[in-house]
Amino acid sequence: MKLLLVVACALVDPDNRVLVTQRPEGKALAGLWEFPGGKLEAGERPEPALIRELAEELGIAVKEACLAPLTFASHAYPEFHLLMPLYICRRWEGTVSSREGQALKWVRPGKLRELAMPPADEPLIPPLVDLLGA
């Protein structure tokens, strides 16, 4: 089975809310909410990949020192196995905006379970709630 490595980020605003993005129509798992991030390119380390993805998807600049690893998900989908580290980030430059037509939502950590999310994202929620509170 193919192993797919992707990185994700819980951007946390000053009100302790977490940003989630909605997968657009035409993509796998369309309509589900997820933490922003994406696939690593060949030879790319997780942190630079996440910095690149956040710039591409959200138009923000993040420094590697502002990314703190929190937890990871390991999930077997029918076609591949996904391994996804989740980073926390509280500081970035620029204003978060949708660069790829995806919907954006700031959510209190305790409300994340109310959203329809991909199976791989769901185990990332309890560590976020433990860290940030509900």
Compact overview of the structure:
The chain is α+β, with helices and mostly antiparallel strands and 134 residues long. The chain has helices spanning 46-58, 125-132; strands spanning 2-11, 18-22, 33-34, 37-39, 68-76, 80-89, 104-107.
SSE layout and pairings?
Elements: E1 2-11, E2 18-22, E3 33-34, E4 37-39, H1 46-58, E5 68-76, E6 80-89, E7 104-107, H2 125-132
Parallel strand pairs: 1-6
Antiparallel strand pairs: 1-4, 2-3, 2-7, 5-6
Task: Give structural notes.
By secondary structure, the protein is of the alpha+beta class. The strands form two sheets. A four-stranded mixed beta sheet has the order 4-1-6-5, with helices on one face. Strands 3-2-7 form a three-stranded antiparallel beta sheet, with no helix packed on it. The chain has one domain: Nucleoside Triphosphate Pyrophosphohydrolase, CATH 3.90.79.10.
CATH architecture: Alpha-Beta Complex
Query: Could you spell the SSE succession in H and E letters?
Result: EEEEHEEEH
Profile the largest sheet. 4 strands, mixed
CATH classification class: Alpha Beta
Question: How much β-strand is present in the residues?
Answer: 25-35%
Radius of gyration computed on alpha carbons: 14 Å
> How many helices does DSSP assign?
2
Mean pLDDT: 94
- What is the number of E strands? 7
CATH superfamily: Nucleoside Triphosphate Pyrophosphohydrolase
Share in helix: 10-25%
Please give the domain count: 1
